[in-house]
Amino acid sequence: MAVGIVRHRRSCGVVGRDLTIQADTGDMSHHSGPDLLVPHTLRVLGHASTGQVSSLRSLPAEVVEEALEDARALGQVGRSAFGGSTTWHLTELGRAKGESALAVELDEVGGRAVVEEAHAAFLPLNRRIGTVMTQWQLRPTATDPLAPNDHRDAAHDDAVIRRLGGLVEDLRPVLDRLTGVLQRFDLHQPRLDRALHKAERGSNSRVDSPDVPSLNICWIQLHEDLLATLGIERGKRRPDRLSPRSGRASGGRGPVCLLPPSVTHGTNLIHLMSHGRSKQTDPCAPRTTPVDDT
Question: In terms of domain of life, where is this protein from (predicted)?
Answer without folding.
Answer: Bacteria
